[in-house]
């Protein structure tokens, strides 16, 4: 197995007052290999989400390194950074808050395809979206609806579909089932495991 992500002595501090800093992530190190699942466990507010977002470059580091395939993500050029964002994605905790309520599902999932120009024609783009929807247990008819027309579990499936559209190699899941009913949680976990097995995602 190849190492996909190396986190070395990662620190992420936020200014709390003029003299004090909030140490959200303090000296954390771990490695993740291709196709592997790593769970980070801790009480609410201990820095799990901040750690995940810093590993994706959403936050600058205070100190330490995050290496993706041996390359420091916080010192990448603009071009390298653009390629990096295609290969890593995030599934957020609240499926309603992370979906644009004004866009149809077709365009929510297709947005990443548009940004990275991953199709030749509009028909090819839409077909890719339909295939991804079916992969997460939804149908192509769902593509013409808006997020508020779905249940919480279905919205999280849309969030997962959007993540998968770019065919990523590494996904940060920020408590992707905690906002869902217990009856739906197992379905989403099983879906994520199935997708991971099929696509070899870490």
Describe this structure in words.
The model has no long low-confidence stretch (mean pLDDT 94). The chain is built from six helices and six strands; from the N terminus they run E-E-H-E-E-H-E-H-H-H-E-H. The protein has helices at residues 48-55, 78-87, 105-115, 122-135, 152-164, 182-199, and strands spanning 3-15, 21-33, 63-68, 71-72, 88-91, 170-173. It is an alpha+beta fold. The longest helix has 18 residues, at 182-199. It starts with a strand and ends with a helix.
Q: What are the secondary-structure elements, in order, as H or E?
A: EEHEEHEHHHEH
Please give the number of β-strands: 6
* Cα radius of gyration in angstroms: 18 Å
Q: DSSP strand (E) fraction?
A: 15-25%
Structural category: alpha+beta
* Amino- and carboxy-terminal Cα gap: 11 Å
What overall geometry do the principal axes of the alpha carbons give? Answer: globular
Read across the widest sheet, the strand sequence of neighbours is 2-1-3-4
Percent helix: 25-40%
**Biggest sheet features:** 4 strands, antiparallel
Low-confidence stretches: none
Arithmetic mean pLDDT: 94
Count of helical stretches = 6
């Amino acid at each position: 197995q190849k190492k996909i992500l190396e986190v070395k002595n990662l620190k992420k501090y936020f200014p709390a007052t003029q003299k004090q800093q909030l140490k959200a992530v303090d000296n954390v190190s771990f490695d993740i290999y291709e196709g592997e699942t790593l769970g980070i466990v801790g009480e609410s507010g201990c820095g799990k989400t901040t750690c995940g977002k810093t590993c994706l470059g959403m936050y600058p580091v205070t100190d330490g390194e995050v290496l993706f395939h041996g390359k420091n993500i916080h010192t990448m050029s603009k071009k390298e950074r653009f390629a990096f964002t295609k290969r890593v994605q995030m599934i957020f905790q609240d499926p309603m808050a992370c979906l644009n309520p004004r866009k149809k599902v077709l365009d929510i999932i297709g947005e990443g395809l548009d940004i990275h120009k991953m199709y030749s024609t509009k028909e090819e783009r839409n077909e890719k979206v339909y295939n991804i929807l079916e992969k997460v247990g939804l149908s192509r008819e769902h593509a013409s609806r808006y997020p508020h027309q779905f249940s919480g579990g279905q919205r999280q499936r849309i969030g997962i579909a959007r993540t998968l559209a770019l065919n990523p190699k590494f996904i940060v899941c920020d408590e992707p089932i905690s906002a869902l009913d217990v009856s739906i949680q197992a379905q989403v976990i099983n879906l994520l495991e199935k997708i991971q097995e099929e696509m070899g995602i870490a």
